[in-house]
Specification:
Blueprint lengths: L1 H24 L17 H5 L13 H4 L11 E10 L4 E11 L4 E17 L16 E17 L6 E14 L3 E16 L2 E8 L4 E7 L1 H5 L12 E5 L2 E8 L1 E2 L4 E12 L14 E12 L3 E14 L7 E15 L2 E15 L2 E16 L1
Antiparallel strand pairs: 1-2, 1-17, 2-3, 3-4, 4-5, 5-6, 6-7, 6-8, 7-10, 8-9, 10-12, 11-12, 12-13, 13-14, 14-15, 15-16, 16-17
Length: 367
């Protein structure tokens, strides 16, 4: 019980580092800044509804909670992921590698890219003679990149407690029109005791700053009458905190169950979440993993609860959630994970329409 109190105290100190400046900056910062870093990575996590803060124990811990790197079972671990959103229009790619430095500490590196490629610029499609010339079409991409460098260490005075941190470098690019560089720090903790797994992740704990640079000449060509030129300058990402808990349950035979819960708390103003206020909005997520003989896994999860206006009534609002399913196979250090995540569900005149995302990730741990 004393160990749990220490974990809670450390968590409060970690939160306090960021909350002091959050309230002051809240009214001047945009929501959803650097939101591409909150989509999630790894087939296991996405199949469980993005519930991973207390569970991550391989190379993906560099993204979910760097403290989990100390729980890595193999000397080296690597993960690759690819997913396509909205019928393949948006590509989401991820790669990570991690290794221990000694018995007490570990390091990792992660790369994330989210982008739309080969966007056609047809403004010059018609030449000076009024004829269509397809050779005048050019293409550009819009992409967001992030590199996370992670360090984790076990706290020797408290058995089962680990802490970790990320230094992240961000690059965002809108073709030749604009780009931004950013830098931020994440911090996390994991505590394992008596079968319970607890985690706390503080993203952008010092706030993350993106410095935007605008190519005025390029933008000027796209402006319509009355539209103003975008301005460059800093964009601030306020902290968010994720508290997680999980417990492994042994079932008859060689089956196991791993239920888990995450509470994500954002501080950038009121959001459309299950628990919402002007100071903090809380989005709960739940997931479960059923395993057999540490070989085959079936996963499910639900999160992203939102109140959406009904098309049947202008005043009625209904709660919707984002469910997900996944399967995984682990054999001789190789891990193959597949996930299916429903991105949107809308009721339109009594019929349901939905957009699904298929995620594939491959992991390998070796000595």
């Amino acid at each position: 019980m004393m160990h749990f109190s220490r974990f809670a105290t450390l968590g409060l100190l970690l939160s306090g580092l960021a909350l002091g400046q959050t309230v002051k900056a809240q009214s001047t910062t945009p929501k959803y800044s650097n939101e591409f870093l909150n989509l999630g990575v790894g087939g296991r996590a996405l199949g469980m509804g993005n519930v991973q803060v207390a569970l991550a124990s391989d190379a993906t811990a560099g993204y979910w909670n760097p403290a989990g790197l100390t729980q890595q079972k193999n000397k080296y671990d690597a993960v690759l992921m690819h997913s396509e959103l909205f019928s393949g229009i948006i590509k989401n790619d991820y790669a990570a590698f991690s290794m221990p430095l000694d018995e007490q500490s570990a390091i990792g590196a992660s790369l994330v890219r989210l982008g739309v490629d080969d966007i056609a610029d047809t403004r010059n499609l018609v030449n000076e003679y009024g004829q269509i010339d397809y050779g005048r079409i050019t293409y550009f991409s819009i992409a967001d990149y992030a590199m996370l460098l992670s360090y984790a260490r076990k706290i020797g005075s408290v058995e089962g407690l680990s802490v970790g941190a990320n230094a992240k470098i961000i690059y965002r690019n809108v073709g030749d029109y604009a780009n931004a560089w950013g830098f931020g720090i994440d911090a996390g903790m994991q505590y394992n005791h008596a079968g319970w797994q607890l985690g706390l992740m503080a993203r952008d704990i010092t706030t993350t700053y993106n410095a935007w640079s605008i190519n005025a000449d390029k933008f000027r060509q796209t402006l319509v009458p009355g539209e103003t030129m975008p301005k460059g300058g800093p964009e601030v990402t306020l902290p968010r905190f994720i508290l997680g808990a999980a417990r492994l349950i042994k079932l008859p035979g060689e089956f196991t169950a791993l239920p888990a819960l995450d509470l994500e708390m954002t501080t950038d103003g009121q959001r459309n979440t299950l628990i919402s206020s002007s100071t903090v909005s809380i989005d709960p997520r739940a997931g479960i993993e059923i395993g057999y003989s540490n070989l085959v896994y079936l996963r499910g999860g639900v999160g992203n609860f939102q109140k959406i206006k009904s098309f049947k009534s202008t005043t009625q609002e209904d709660w919707h959630a984002q469910p997900s399913l996944g399967v995984g196979v682990a054999l001789s250090g190789l891990r193959l994970d597949l996930a299916l995540s429903r991105l949107a569900v809308e009721n339109t005149g009594g019929s349901a329409s939905q957009t699904n995302s298929v995620i594939v990730s491959l992991g390998y741990g070796f000595k």
